[in-house]
Write a structure and sequence with these properties.
By secondary structure, this protein is α/β, with parallel strands linked by helices. It has eight helices and 14 strands. The protein has a six-stranded parallel β-sheet, sandwiched between helices. Strand 2 and strand 3 form a beta hairpin. The longest helix has 20 residues. It is elongated, with a radius of gyration of 23 Å. The two termini are 26 Å apart.
Length: 314
């Protein structure tokens, strides 16, 4: 959910908006630190902090904060023990912060809205009970931690680059499956007519006579999904991507027989067996028997999310 865009819209229409944020978790909890809800005065909300009694109580607290008049209410931090306080069986503790924003906050909210719209990863640093924030762009994974007394919240994720080769039925289904997720998709096919008229905002469509050329500019940590209309093209893309350490994941649509054939050919081309062993084929693992494009795409999406999570853990 684009948190700050929603807040800005509500300030524009209602004059105020509340942000409910999970800022810390100890033990088992419905959502992780960084989960958010944006609440309006009538109780309507966007996002979730996990549902159940915790979410219901925090919605009521946010509505009360929005109803206050006079001086702008300061952010409040609430600690909830899910079992003793709320009767939830998760058993952990959750720290939640509730903040109310008004038109006075719009000037510093605008840069956050812009960062969300451009899908740039951003982080804000703020004191536990203060609404002021310092905007920090996340250029990599080695950013210094917040200083004592500050809480770091990330709004928007650095999208993972995915090079998707092939605009056939599964490629189209995969693009739709990944539309709400933090991937920046470079969608490549030599056939201009294969692409749809429109694509989700996180997709760039490229008609290239030599699709392998798209790999030249890929940043480190990119993922590759190969599902072109041509077996020779599939092979050429895999042979170029697998030896390149920039690509953390290389998956290809097909069968176990295709994998045996392709790895044999690539090894005869001089590509080491350890490198050909990186090839994920069939992509998506075929956990389910269904072969409809949407079913295959759903399985591939899970595998790509796993690859993304493994990268973030490095």
């Amino acid at each position: 959910m684009p948190v700050w865009t929603r807040i800005a819209d509500l300030i524009d229409t209602d004059g105020r908006a509340a942000l409910v944020s999970v800022v810390a978790v100890d033990g088992s909890a419905p959502r992780e630190a960084g989960a958010h809800m944006v609440v309006r005065a009538d109780g309507d909300f966007s996002g979730t902090i996990g549902g159940g009694a915790l979410e219901h109580r925090m919605l009521e607290a946010a509505r009360q904060a929005l109803a206050e008049t006079g001086a702008r209410p300061q952010g409040q931090r609430l600690r909830q023990a899910l079992g003793p306080d709320l009767g939830q069986c998760c058993g952990g503790r959750v720290d939640v912060r509730i903040e109310v924003f008004s038109r006075a906050d719009v000037p510093w909210i605008r840069p956050l809205v812009l960062a969300e719209q451009t899908r740039a990863g951003i982080e804000t640093l703020g004191l536990p009970d203060a609404q002021g924030r310092l905007i920090r762009r996340l250029a990599g994974r080695s950013e210094p931690p917040p200083r004592l007394g500050e809480i770091a919240e990330r709004f928007g994720e650095m999208p993972t680059p995915l090079y998707l080769f092939g605009a056939g039925h599964v490629g189209r289904a995969l693009v739709l499956a990944l539309a709400p997720l933090a991937f920046r998709i470079e969608w490549i096919d030599p056939r201009a007519e294969a692409f749809p008229a429109m694509a989700p905002a996180n997709v760039a469509m490229w008609q290239l006579p030599d699709p392998t050329a798209a790999l030249a500019e890929a940043p480190a940590g990119s993922l590759v999904a190969i599902m072109s209309h041509s077996h020779p093209l599939d092979l050429a893309i895999a042979a170029k991507a697998l030896p390149d350490p920039r690509f953390a994941y290389v998956g290809m649509i097909g069968s176990a027989a295709k994998r045996r054939r392709f790895t044999g050919v690539m090894q005869r081309m001089g590509i080491d067996a350890a490198l050909t062993g990186r090839l994920v084929l069939p992509i998506g693992g075929r956990r389910l028997a269904g072969k409809a494009p949407a079913v295959i795409a759903a399985q591939i999406a899970v595998e790509l999310l796993e690859a993304r999570e493994a990268l973030q853990a490095l």
